[in-house]
Amino acid sequence: MDAPAFARYLNTPLPIGNKIISGRMVLAPMAGLGHIAFRQLVAEFGGFGLLFTGMCSAKAVPHENPSVSPVFCWRRQELPYTVCQIFGAAPDIMAKAARRIEQEGFFGVDLNFGCSVAAICKKGCGAALLKTPDRAAEIVAAVRAAVSFPVFVKFRTGWSDDAAFAADMAKRFEAAGADALVFHPRVAPDRRTRPPKWDVITRVTGAVTIPVFGNGNLFAIQDGMQMKEQTGCQGLALGRMAVARPWIFARWAFGKNFDHSIYHAAALRMVSLLKQHYDMPFNLKLFKKFAPYFCANFTFSHFLLKQLNQARTMDALENTIHRLFDPCPQLLSAPNRNLFL
């Protein structure tokens, strides 16, 4: 597959449930990174089919006030292409949250069965649900019965390296009413210490008739081409690379070229959007979650990150960005994956 053919694939509309998305590349569901400010930054560049919010607690969603919630908040204009990601362990609670999300006008809801963070798994949520396949399927069925808009499931291979288990779970999710899957081919205990096994995406894709978005180590456009060719997945979900380079969707899908000044401009815009949507010190905290991925683009990534982390105010952060990134520091040919936490 060459670049023009890949771009045509990325820009081919894809039906999901009772809706259609304009492109095959989406922002992967993430925790702590897919907030309203970052989604706006990505949206300003374009090129994506869908955006996903950060993880929202299903228990909290029915009562959340978007005016004060740091996670369950959005811009009205992004709702047609944004999926709200929720976590929880009880079918009725997840269904109730999904109803609120549909009422607010989101494109769909994403059920997180992939997060392996201890604090989430200890509550029986996230990837812990892959230890109880029947309960996971019950949650999907309860949500499906409660809403009419698209239902996504984000999940991993499981708690052991078993491709057959992943394929079986995909079948269970489809049978329970899921409209699309976002699949990350790593076992739950593996926090990116080993490469993802794309051959498991092939197994999952072959097991179902609903769209599967492949996720994991999509760093360069050649990786996207290879994943599509190797796995036959219907779409690509980009996570950490989208944080490092929020313009990556426009680059891959539209062939847009950006000169090195984009790094300085994007960092400043991130600061501006965080100031617009959040107050101190939370906005500064969110930038410092973004910073490792952004700094991974550069040769002296750890030095640059240390400098940014020393900022104690947003104004100081802006001054540091001007000092460090104008002109653009030396770029790496591929991001420093040691910072891709």
Explain how this protein is built.
The chain has 14 helices and 10 strands. It is α/β, with parallel strands linked by helices. The chain has 2 domains: 3-254, TIM Barrel (Alpha-Beta Barrel); 261-339. Helix 8 links the parallel strand 9 (212-215) and strand 10.
Please give the structural blueprint.
Elements: H1 3-10, E1 14-16, E2 19-21, E3 25-27, H2 36-45, E4 51-57, E5 82-87, H3 91-104, E6 108-113, H4 118-121, H5 133-146, E7 151-158, H6 163-176, E8 180-187, H7 198-207, E9 212-215, H8 221-231, E10 235-238, H9 240-244, H10 248-254, H11 261-277, H12 282-295, H13 301-309, H14 314-325
Parallel strand pairs: 3-10, 4-5, 5-6, 6-7, 7-8, 8-9, 9-10
Antiparallel strand pairs: 1-2
